[in-house]
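seq as requested:
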Amino acid sequence: MNQDKFYILVYPVIPVNFCRKLRNSDEQSKPLERGESVKVLRLWQMIFLGKGTFVRQFIHALISIALRLFFRRIEAVNVEKAPQDGAIIFVLNHPNGLVDPALVFVSLPRRVSFLAKSTLYDNPIAGFLLRTFEILPIYRRIDALGDIAKNRSTFENCHELLGRGRCIAIFPEGISHDATKLQPIKTGAARIALGALAVGEDLRKNGLKIMAVGLYYTSKTAFRSEALIRYGELLDVEPVELDEAGEPPRDAVLRLTSRIETALKNVTLNLETAGELETVVKAEALFSSVYENLLFKQTLTQTFQRLQNLAEKYKLLGQNEPEKMRRLSEKVTRYENNLQTSGVTTESLSVLQHPTAYVFRYLILRIVILILLAPFSIVGAIVHSPAYLFSNLLGLMVTKHGDDAAGSTSKILAACIFMPLTWLIVAGTIFYFFSWQFALASIPLTILCGYVALRSFETLIDMRIWLKAAWLLIRQRALFLRLLIQRESLQREIAEMIEK
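struct tokens:
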């Protein structure tokens, strides 16, 4: 009996039992809990966290809206472990330009003063915003005319803020980048911490802590991708005596810098090459039931933990058993190619592991909602499409700001200009042909239509994933089941690798 006939004969009894077995396999493969708390940031929560003057809170609200529209999901892990008062230095990785500090602004209930490259102050508007948020300039050697001697004044301002029990945030890599791992850590954070303790009597009495914060994006530049903010280990800083030049001893600085680097690696994903990252991402998609579907998706934190775990195991496997690593990578790639040839994805196969009645209820309900909201969706899509296209185009054109990555920053800033401009153009057109009352009412209605169009588009994507899988199961049952069995085999092999 050939393999295809075997699949067809057993088809009536396979789907329920086989899918239940796959679900159990997925549940067993979830990462161990680390006592972490996961919080999905809602728009009202992000706005509520704004502190300071009215201008600062207003800008904070605009940043929150822009981020919430750009990212379909923002998760914060262990944010409640960040001290609510007292001096603290947050150290972060820096993969995504101005988006990185913006995410910390909207997730913490504290006023945070960032250190940012001095060249940002060259723009008058940017300079105003930076001063509003009490952002301090840092002078880098890589910047044109960067006078690093001016950093002494910045360090003194940091000492003063920390002495008052405030918090500052630093990107110790010193540059925003597209690399797949942390860049070499600079010593600035350690020097500021040790210097502040040495000159502040109250600070020595009350203590100073450093907290590592890791930032992870499913895609840095794709609209409606996802972002994860991981608040990690709290480090206590022990005071030291300054030398004759007023600087902390070099060995103390290097020891603290090493601790900062270790803490940052624990909350970030680090792989040597883009190829390794691609392999690990594919393996994670096969190994779990996490996929790009809003209804069934687990937390981004669970995805990140699996990626981090797989990255560590793949590195060890590559060092100890390179031939086994090569064979496993080839199997994963071959399976991905089979999926592409069949016209489906790993996500499509995962959808039908859920109860059929539940999936059908979801499908029917969403179809009804989409039909009812179709007029608003069509209007919203047509009106906002020019702004969306221009923002994407600008993001593709402006990928760098000096030596720093700035793709998504350009997109978000462009959207903050083009979207309100769209609303004003619509209102102006209606005012010209009708009256100011209709023009005023058109602004919230235009915004609502745009939001409905956005959510409708995402729902259509989710439904497309299910429909493609269902169509494959109906037309090519043997192929569908063969792909499921191959997936289970790869899952088992990857699971064994993790267990070892």
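Residues 38-270 form a domain with the Glycerol-3-phosphate (1)-acyltransferase fold (CATH 3.40.1130.10).
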